[in-house]
Specification:
Blueprint (H helix, E strand, L loop, with lengths): L1 E3 L3 E3 L7 H23 L1 E4 L4 H11 L5 H23 L1 H6 L4 E8 L2 E6 L1
Parallel strand pairs: 3-4
Antiparallel strand pairs: 1-2, 4-5
Helix pairs in contact: 1-2, 1-3
């Protein structure tokens, strides 16, 4: 269940459609990509591995949380790893004068990031 206001409760069906879940994940990653491009001159390259990325996020998704659960799963397992990578490579990123590609891969239950 999701709430609107303090006294009104509006029930929603669980998101079970894999295509819908994948579209939500892709939308969130597109927003992250735009932010990285503006703030760090990085292009997030995830489209080639989108199926694997979606599978990993779905494995951490709690359907009872609805669409918010998908975003929470992305925040929990993707954003943290991405933040660590950016911190570890900050000097290289800051010193680059050109747009860098940041490739996202999945290895086991982890995201792997590579600068290209």
């Amino acid at each position: 269940m999701n709430r609107i206001g303090q006294k009104n409760i509006v029930p929603f069906n669980f998101i079970n459609d894999s295509k819908v879940i994948s579209k939500i994940i892709e939308g969130k990653l597109n927003k992250v990509s735009k932010t990285l491009q503006v703030k760090h001159n990085l292009e997030l390259d995830f489209k080639e591995n989108l199926l694997n990325i979606c599978d990993l996020v779905k494995s951490h998704y709690k359907p009872q949380m609805g669409g918010r659960g998908i975003v929470n799963a992305i925040d929990d397992i993707f954003i943290g790893d991405l933040s660590n990578f950016l911190f570890e490579n900050l000097e290289k990123i800051k010193n680059s004068k050109e747009l860098l590609a940041l490739q996202v891969k999945v290895k086991g239950d982890k995201f792997i990031f590579e600068l290209k």
